[in-house]
Design brief:
CATH architecture of the largest domain: 2-Layer Sandwich
CATH superfamily of the largest domain: Dihydrodipicolinate Reductase, domain 2
Order of helices and strands: EHEHEHEHEHEHEHHEEEEEEEHHHEH
Bound molecules: nicotinamide-adenine-dinucleotide
Shape: globular
Strand order of the largest sheet: 14-13-12-11-7-10-9-8-15
Number of helices: 12
Helix content: 25-40%
CATH topology of the largest domain: Dihydrodipicolinate Reductase, domain 2
Strand content: 25-35%
Oligomer: single chain
CATH class of the largest domain: Alpha Beta
Distance between the termini: 40 Å
Length: about 375
């Protein structure tokens, strides 16, 4: 069956666009990348070479004048998401925006209302919600295989001692590792355990001689259901990395562990269900023999883009939208506020704290430096 293809544009042709989406558009049955824009012309040109898109631009305004473009993927740094999403919505084009949705809850609110006002769709790209292993865990929880769920622990560790303030992630005005990578496991906690009502957090800066925001954090969330979840996150493990999720219920404990990290891999997670401390069921998904087939079927970024294009074609509201993006921005900001003031923060948070001030204080009071003997691993 031939399918209509949504004509996509992309703004921001950096690492994410290149490595996570760039080679995969050819497998997107219901979408086509027609144009790309980057403030850096060289990056835009390299992206055209990689993807074969018809046209390139050096600013979003010109991309938006391209009549063929119906929807725009936003892969720029989060500090410009708000302004760009508003511009895209005002041009009447649908929006697919990478996480973190924005830096502040005020920005997230403006983005949602701009999309609503201009009647365009807004999907926030939390790709784990389109990953087969994550979807299986969600299903097990929903089907009641764990009984009543009361606790969840997420761990996200990386070896990134090489990080520097040259990368937007590690410099002001934004938050650091908790905002950037932490958005993913925080979204998983909320997706699996429900809305969050209270947040406490501690953010730290160890590499005070290299970066401007946070590199280590711990967040405790109280959910509306009464359940509790925690995230431990660091850039400074001497292991290669670790991403794991453990969910505790009255009838079972579910463990999901990634061989290194889920972001770059087609390998499924190891998923085990423990019951009554005696029975263990291995629920790890199997994969196809062909990496190519596996990629076409399971590559999480491709699946989420397929889903988005389907929403545009069938005029459906995306299931992962501004509400979900904002909720994570809110948790991140509440954790920073909690850390700054030494308090528990009740949600909703109508206003974000002055995080620039917080990170300046954090840097000044940091007890650590990393020095020149750096290490790191891409998982
Ligand atoms: N879901 C994931 O797993 C995942 C992975 C990587 C990145 N991301 C997200 O994608 C976004 C981009 O991250 P990245 O690592 O690709 O960043 P990057 O710094 O590698 O690339 C950003 C690109 O945007 C361009 N740019 C900056 N400001 C611009 C502007 N005003 N107009 C046009 N172009 C502009 C830069 O020149 C650069 O090429 C972030 O929101 C990030 O969190 C998500």
């Amino acid at each position: 069956m031939s399918m209509r293809k949504v004509k996509l544009g992309i703004v921001g042709c950096g690492w994410g666009s290149r490595d996570l989406y760039g080679s995969f558009f050819r497998y997107l049955e219901n979408g086509e990348l027609v144009a790309a824009a980057d403030a850096d012309e060289k990056s835009a040109r390299a992206y055209q070479e990689q993807t074969g898109c018809k046209r390139i631009y050096t600013d979003l305004g010109s991309l938006l004048k391209d009549k063929e473009v119906e929807a725009v993927m936003v892969l720029t740094p989060p500090s410009v998401h708000c302004k760009q999403v508003e511009q895209i919505a005002e041009a009447g084009k649908h929006v697919y925006c990478e996480k973190p949705m924005a830096i502040t809850v005020e920005e997230a609110d403006e983005m949602t209302s701009a999309c609503r006002k201009n009647k365009v769709k807004l999907q926030i790209a939390f790709m784990k919600r389109f990953n087969p292993s994550f979807l299986l865990c969600k299903k097990l929880i929903e089907e009641g295989r764990l009984g009543d769920v009361f606790e969840m622990r997420a761990i996200w560790d990386n070896a990134r001692a090489y990080a520097s303030a040259e990368n937007y992630r590690h410099r002001l005005p934004g938050g650091g590792y908790l905002q950037e990578d932490g958005s993913h496991p925080l979204d998983v906690c909320r997706w699996w355990m429900g809305e969050v009502k209270e947040v406490s957090g501690n953010a730290m800066l160890v590499m005070s001689d290299r970066i401007e925001n946070d590199d280590v954090a711990c967040v405790i969330m109280k959910h509306k259901s009464g359940a509790m979840s925690t995230l431990h996150i660091t850039m400074l493990t001497h292991r290669r990395g670790l991403e794991s999720y453990e969910v505790f219920g009255t009838k079972g404990t579910l463990l999901m562990e990634w061989p290194y990290h889920s972001t770059h891999t087609l390998e499924p997670a190891i998923i085990k269900l423990y019951e009554k401390s005696s029975k263990v069921t291995d629920l790890t998904l199997s994969t196809s023999w062909s990496p190519q087939k596996e990629m076409e079927k399971s590559w999480q970024y491709l699946n989420e883009l397929r889903y988005f294009c389907g929403c545009v074609i069938n005029n459906r509201e995306p299931s992962v939208t501004g509400k979900d993006g904002r909720a994570v921005v809110e948790i991140v900001n509440a954790a920073y506020l909690s850390s700054q003031k030494g308090i528990k923060v009740k949600l909703p948070l109508e206003k974000s704290p002055d995080i620039t001030k917080f990170f300046k204080e954090l840097r000044k009071s940091s007890k650590w430096k990393i020095g020149k003997d750096l290490w790191g691993s891409r998982y």
